[in-house]
Design a protein that fits this description.
The complex is a heterodimer of chains A (116) and B (115). By secondary structure, chain A is mostly beta strands. In chain A, 0% of the residues lie in helices and 50% in strands. The chains are: A mainly beta (116), B mainly beta (115). The A-B interface holds A 31-33, 35, 37, 42-47, 50, 52, 91, 95-97, 100-104, 106, 108-109 and B 31, 42-43, 45, 48, 50, 55-56, 89, 91, 93, 99-101, 103-109, 111.
Chain lengths: 116, 115
C-alpha cells in the first residue's frame, strides 16, 4: 500500500489564487514527521515546511501553511496568493520515528502550474 | 550560510567510464544522504551516512556504485564502470539534529548522462 499519496498529478491555478495540494499518508507509528518540498524546473529540491505528528498547531512558513488533519491522515499544503514562481513539482514526504528508521517516504508529486 | 554544494552540475560520459560525484554538506550537519531521481522511479535513497559512517547502503544498485565520506565536510559517489541506465539526477542532502524531525537540505544535483 502507498504510504504517501498525492492524488493530483497536475494542477492549473490562476495567479493570486490560493492553492491546496493534497497529501494523505498511512502509518501505524504514533510519532512521525511530514515534509513538503518544491522542485522547480531548474531541478533543485527546496524544503518548504514541516509538521510533526504531536504538533498542536498547523505549521506555517510565510505563504505556505499545512492543513494537518491527523484523524484523516492528511497533510495538505496550502499556498496563499499564488505567484508565477510557484510553478513547480511539489512533493509530500513522511518520516516515521521507528527505531533506526530514517528514510523519507516520498509521494509521487503534484505538478503545479500558475497561469498569469 | 552556504547550502549543500554538489559538483559537477552536469556530467556527460561514455559507457564504461568512471564517474565521481562530489558533495559538501552544510557545516554542522551530521547526516548525509545520496539520492537518485529518474522519471520512472522518482527519488531513490542510495546511501545514508551518520557522523561520516555509512549506516545503510542497501539502496546502492550494484557493486559498480560506491560512496565515501572521509570527513564531515566531504562525500563522493563513484560509479565504475558507468552504464547508460545510470543516467539520472543525483542529489546529495544533509540534515542535523534529530534525524526524525530534521528536514533534508538538498544540493542542486548532478545531472548525469551516460552515452
Amino acid at each position: 500500500a502507498q504510504k504517501i499519496t498525492q492524488t493530483q498529478p497536475g494542477m492549473f491555478v490562476q495567479e493570486k489564487e490560493a492553492v491546496t495540494l493534497d497529501c494523505t499518508y498511512d502509518t501505524s507509528d504514533p510519532s512521525y514527521g511530514l515534509f513538503w518540498y518544491k522542485q522547480p524546473s531548474s531541478g533543485e529540491m527546496i524544503f518548504l515546511i514541516y509538521q510533526g505528528s504531536y504538533d498542536q498547531q498547523n505549521a506555517t512558513e510565510g505563504r505556505y501553511s499545512l492543513n494537518f488533519q491527523k484523524a484523516r491522515k492528511s497533510a495538505n499544503l496550502v499556498i496563499s496568493a499564488s505567484q508565477l514562481g510557484d510553478s513547480a513539482m511539489y512533493f509530500c514526504a513522511m518520516r516515521e520515528a521507528m527505531d533506526s528508521n530514517y528514510q523519507l517516504i516520498w509521494g509521487a508529486g503534484t505538478k503545479l502550474i500558475i497561469k498569469p | 550560510d552556504a547550502g549543500v554544494i554538489q559538483s559537477p552540475r552536469h556530467e556527460v560520459t561514455e559507457m564504461g567510464q568512471e564517474v565521481t560525484l562530489r558533495c559538501k554538506p552544510i557545516s554542522g550537519h551530521n547526516s548525509l544522504f545520496w539520492y537518485r531521481q529518474t522519471m520512472m522511479r522518482g527519488l531513490e535513497l542510495l546511501i545514508y551516512f551518520n557522523n561520516n559512517v555509512p549506516i545503510d547502503d542497501s539502496g546502492m544498485p550494484e557493486d559498480r556504485f560506491s560512496a565515501k565520506m572521509p570527513n564531515a565536510s566531504f562525500s563522493t559517489l563513484k560509479i565504475q564502470p558507468s552504464e547508460p541506465r545510470d543516467s539520472a539526477v543525483y542529489f546529495c542532502a544533509s540534515s542535523s539534529g534529530d534525524i526524525h524531525n530534521s528536514p533534508l537540505h538538498f544540493g542542486n544535483g548532478t545531472r548525469l548522462t551516460v552515452t
